[in-house]
Each structure stands twice: as C-alpha cells, then as structure tokens.
Amino acid sequence: MAQQPENNIVRTAYEALAAVLGGTQSLHTNSMDEVLSLPTEKTVKIALRTQQIIAYETGVTNTVDPLAGSYFLEALTTTLEEEAEEYFQRIAELGGVVAGIEDGFFQREIADASYRYQKALEKKEHIMVGVNAFIDPPNPSDAVSVLKIDPAIEREQVRSLQDRKAHRNVDCVRQQLAQLTVACRTEDAPLMPVLLDCVRAEATLGEIVHTMKEVFGGWRERPVF
C-alpha cells in the first residue's frame, strides 16, 4: 500500500513464508515501494534479503511439507479446489478463455472483486494497517524516496538502438521478419523458432510486434463499468 509503505515489508515476508509453506516452485518478493514507482536498489535488496532470511534462518526448508496433516489447511485447500472448478466450469460454458476475454468476462470479474474489496476497506470489514486503521497524521519526514530515472539514460538507450540498427544486416532482418509473417499466416506453425531467428538477426522487439500485428491485428479491451 502507498500509505506507510514500510508495512509492505512485513506483508511481503508473511506472504513469502506462506508461499514456501505451500510448496511453491517459484517465489518473487515485491519491493515495498513498487506501489509508488520502480523500486530503488535499497528496497530491492530488502526484498531479496526477505527471501534469504526465510530460506536460511527459519528452518522452513528442512521439511518437505511442514503443514502436512493440518485439518484447517486441508479444508481450505478442498474449498479452494471446489471453487476453482466452479470457475473453470463457468469459463467452459462461455466457450473457453478466448470467448471469455472477448465477452469481457475476466475484466468484469476483476472489476467486481476490486469494488467489493474497496467497499470492505471503506466499511472496515477488512482491516489494513496504515490504510483504514492505525493511521498516522501526515508527516513530510515519513516520505519514502522513490526511484527517479535520469532522462539521459533514455537518450543513451535511443542512441544505442539507433547505432545497433545502423550496423546490423538489414537484408537479414527483412528476410527473418518476412519468414515471421509467413509463419504467422500458417495455421499451427510454431512461432518460437522463427522469433528466435528474428532476435538473432537483431530485429527489434518493436519490429517483431509490428510484423505480428499486421497478421493478427491488435486487441483493445472493452471498457468495463
């Protein structure tokens, strides 16, 4: 949360620990200031140290399944599975994921869930420390330093890209992008090998996306209110 963002360190630690206890195969811990901007090096390191403390200081990795046999957690898991299956059935009845996207189903579900959550916060049916409870008066000294990108970095990146495009084999790039067009127009053709060839030829991400858009078009979500 943007209010009292240091609290996000604690939230992230508990969330990460819960993920480990649940047997996660991959874990990412957000930095406390990502709600405000791209994270600073300091907050990124805190997020990394959060994972390392869990891994090396808690002992949670010493057991394959520390919570095995917990009736409460098994009951929660069963409920989650049942409700997930109900969702899958609803999506299937819509005609699948693509049909659901085109119908705006997922956007409506997200919007409705966000609205319910916000109303619960406003009514204090759901407590979030520092947001709707235990709120401190505004104090300028509590402001968090956010990452500011030097405009010179953008200029240097543009210059570097222009230099790369000026020294690459233009004919090779055009040839690979043409092959990408053919692959996109060929039903069931594997695109990944062709995309990798484009990258090896030093085609830019923008050029690759533009080529694919010429075949597939672009998707614009319908507003959901």
UniProtKB/TrEMBL annotation:
<dbReference type="GO" id="GO:0031419">
    <property type="term" value="F:cobalamin binding"/>
</dbReference>
<dbReference type="InterPro" id="IPR016176">
    <property type="entry name" value="Cbl-dep_enz_cat"/>
</dbReference>
<dbReference type="Pfam" id="PF01642">
    <property type="entry name" value="MM_CoA_mutase"/>
</dbReference>
<feature type="domain" description="Methylmalonyl-CoA mutase alpha/beta chain catalytic">
    <location>
        <begin position="2"/>
        <end position="217"/>
    </location>
</feature>
<dbReference type="InterPro" id="IPR006099">
    <property type="entry name" value="MeMalonylCoA_mutase_a/b_cat"/>
</dbReference>
<dbReference type="GO" id="GO:0016866">
    <property type="term" value="F:intramolecular transferase activity"/>
</dbReference>
<protein>
    <recommendedName>
        <fullName>Methylmalonyl-CoA mutase alpha/beta chain catalytic domain-containing protein</fullName>
    </recommendedName>
</protein>
